[in-house]
Amino acid sequence: IKDQPGVAAIAYEPVWAIGTGKVASNEQAQEVHAAIRQRLTGVSPELSRATRVLYGGSVKADNALGLLNQTDIDGALVGGASLKADSFLGIVSAARQVA
Question: What's phi and psi for 85, nearest 5 deg?
């Protein structure tokens, strides 16, 4: 990191969620995202503010709102749900509600 941090994103997905269709609870996801945010703040508060931390474990229309409402979750890294228009639109709708 030089004088000014750049814009970046970090995506987190629990190992046990990869390819399984399982999703962390809102509380579990928030806990890990808060730890990531704390680590970033330790490097630089500015870096922490500039970095988007995304949740990427089986985000779907029916769980997106709860995840996106968490303090330290800035967005979603959407996988398979992005391939189905209705499902993806549900996630977009949840994101709009939070924005």
Answer: -55, -50
Provide the pLDDT for residue 27.
Answer: 97
Residue 42 contacts residue 87 (beta carbons within 8 Å): no
What mean pLDDT is predicted for residues 35-46?
A: 94
Host H or E run for residue 7: none
Is the separation of the CB atoms in 70 and 29 below 8 Å? yes
Question: Got the DSSP string for 50-78?
Answer: HEEEEE-SS--TTTHHHHHTSTT--EE--
Tell me if 98 sits within 8 A of 65, measured CB to CB.
yes
Residue 96 has pLDDT above 80, yes or no: yes
- Phi, psi values for residue 45, rounded to 5°: -55, -35
pTM: 0.87
